[in-house]
Write a structure and sequence with these properties.
Layout (H helix, E strand, L loop, with lengths): L2 H24 L4 H9 L1 H17 L7 H33 L11 H33 L2 H34 L7
């Protein structure tokens, strides 16, 4: 089973369902159908998780790079998915339904610092979810030789989380602390 194709299919499916749901809401004005379509987004994650577990557990595959990537993709979509949907919804509403201009990420100040810490918090949630999925599948398969790549992904996701911490929230916090306070 090619897990990479499944990840691509889930990503394409995410955007198709998202834009379909928003088009149904704002262009066709069918709010209930739109809600049903948008509620299908998590089904893609469930399908991908099931496929990865089946491939490793039932089909007896040896974990490779794509199995780990799929688990991290799941963590990302759970941690960042609502925010992505909200931002695209705001844009779609503005563009097609005369909604307000979407809020932009602040460039400076305490709002920017808060934004960076919230984003890192989402990354931390992503890392926790990915670790739980990777660890759970490793435990379920019960064969360390076949799941060694998944353990490697746990290390990768936490390294990325640490780099994100230093590169964005800590960096922005320190940079903003050194900025002169704007007078009003």
């Amino acid at each position: 089973m090619n897990i990479f194709i499944a990840i691509l299919a889930c990503e394409i499916g995410f955007w198709v369902v998202l834009f379909g749901g928003l088009a149904t809401r704002y262009l066709l004005r069918l709010r209930r159908l739109s809600t049903v379509l948008l509620l299908c987004v998590p089904l893609l994650d469930i399908a991908l998780l099931s496929l990865i577990a089946w491939d490793l557990g039932v089909a007896g595959a040896t974990a490779d790079f794509t199995h780990g990537l799929g688990a991290v993709y799941l963590g990302f979509t759970i941690a960042f998915g609502h925010q992505i949907i909200t931002r695209v919804d705001a844009w779609f509403s503005h563009r097609f339904a005369r909604g307000p201009v979407p809020e932009r990420v602040p460039k400076h100040g305490p709002e920017r610092v808060a934004h960076e810490w919230k984003e890192w918090g989402r990354m931390l949630l992503c890392a926790v979810i990915a670790t739980a999925v990777l660890g759970g599948i490793t435990w379920l398969v019960g064969d360390p030789e076949r799941t060694a790549e998944l353990v490697g992904w746990i290390v990768r996701v936490w390294a990325i989380t640490a780099i994100w911490l230093v590169g964005w929230p800590v960096w922005v916090t320190v940079a903003e602390a050194g900025r002169p306070v704007a007078k009003r």
